[in-house]
Design a protein that fits this description.
The protein is 39% helix and 11% strand. It is an alpha/beta fold and 140 residues long. The protein has a single domain, classed as Ribosomal protein L13 (Ribosomal Protein L13p, Chain: A), CATH 3.90.1180.10.
């Protein structure tokens, strides 16, 4: 199943993708940099910046936990938090997820599956995942 993430809300999209993964389907998400986070840009940046900085807060020499900066990896990490990743079923389901920035050549012209529950309804403030990723220092 191929999903175009352009203009879809991060949490709702990740929730529906995780349900499909646990049902045994393989899911490919395109345009990860255009997925929307609802809320102000300052709030979203502060939330993800705090996660990225966690490694140096506890112990500067101990370089973990690692939190992603690229938009495709941020989406993968969000989906991973919604499945039982530490169990065998969750780990096998997570292997069925592929996320891309932009649209690769092998997926051009392919039909995408709509996700109506992830469409924005009444959002006043929002920011794209690609913008947050650039603020975190990603060079995607």
């Amino acid at each position: 199943m191929i999903i175009d993430g352009e203009g879809l809300i991060l949490g709702r999209l990740a929730s529906s993708v995780s349900q499909k993964l646990l049902a045994g389907e393989s899911v490919t998400v395109l345009n990860a940099e255009k997925i929307i986070i609802s809320g102000s840009k300052d709030w979203a940046y502060a939330r993800y910046k705090q996660r990225v900085d966690r490694a140096s807060i506890s112990n500067p020499r101990d370089m973990g936990p690692k939190y992603p900066r690229r938009p495709d990896d941020i989406f993968r990490r969000t989906v991973r938090g919604m499945i039982p990743y530490r169990k065998t079923t969750g780990r096998e389901a997570f292997k069925g997820l592929k996320v891309y920035v932009g649209i690769p050549k092998e997926f051009e012209g392919e039909e995408t599956y709509p996700v109506p529950e992830a469409q924005p309804k009444h959002i006043i403030k929002s920011v794209e995942l690609g913008k947050i990723s650039q603020l975190l220092g990603s060079k995607f």
